[in-house]
Design goal:
- Keywords: Acetylation, Guanine-nucleotide releasing factor, Metal-binding, Protein transport, Transport, Zinc.
- One of its GO terms (molecular function) is zinc ion binding.
- It comes from Eolophus roseicapilla.
- InterPro entries: Mss4 (IPR007515), Mss4-like_sf (IPR011057), Mss4/transl-control_tumour (IPR011323).
- The chain is mainly beta.
- The chain has a single domain, classed as Metal Binding Protein, Guanine Nucleotide Exchange Factor, Chain A (Beta Complex).
- The protein has 3 helices and 9 strands, in the order ααβββαββββββ.
- Strands 3-4-8-7-6-5 form a 6-stranded antiparallel sheet. Strands 2-1-9 form a 3-stranded antiparallel sheet, with no helix packed on it.
- A hairpin with a 5-residue loop joins β1 and β2.
- The chain is globular and about 35 Å long.
- The N terminus is likely disordered.
């Protein structure tokens, strides 16, 4: 994987909580009036709990995450990825119930499920020690 795949748009301003809840129709049922996650965040593959309700804040930011494929399949396909815009923003890495981190890719670490290693489910820039992004599209909610 090339370091270029880890680039992201400049930090976007975070909308106020009321605006965050109304950001998109699909995310509205997941975000409380204070902009926090209403439901637990789970791994899509194994169901392991990643975050408890209320542990993260809704954030809109364009981030490029590598495709969720097995290592051999991703290498054969030449990598690839998805630009994702809706995330749970976690300010303290100890707020996670169950998450793992990849090795550094440039100045980024990707977040994966610590149990089954599915991912990447999120993104963390090493330049900003207090911002961990979990893509809503890459996790389940309960």
């Amino acid at each position: 994987m090339e370091a270029a795949a880890a680039t992201a748009a400049p930090p976007a301003s975070h909308p106020p909580p009321a605006a965050a809840a109304a950001a998109t129709p699909g995310s509205a049922e997941l975000v409380c009036a204070q902009g926090r996650n209403l439901k637990a965040v789970l791994c899509q593959r194994c169901g392991s709990r990643v975050l408890l309700p209320g542990a993260a804040t809704f954030a809109c930011r364009e981030l490029l995450l590598p495709a969720m494929k097995k290592k051999a399949a991703a290498a054969a396909a030449g990598g690839g990825g998805d630009v994702l815009r809706e995330h749970w923003l976690v300010r303290d890495m100890f707020s996670f119930e169950n998450v793992g981190f990849t090795r550094d890719v440039g100045n980024v670490k990707f977040l994966v499920c610590a149990d089954c290693e599915a991912g990447p489910i999120g993104w963390h820039c090493l330049d900003d020690k207090d911002s961990f992004y979990v893509a809503l599209e890459r996790v389940a909610h309960e």
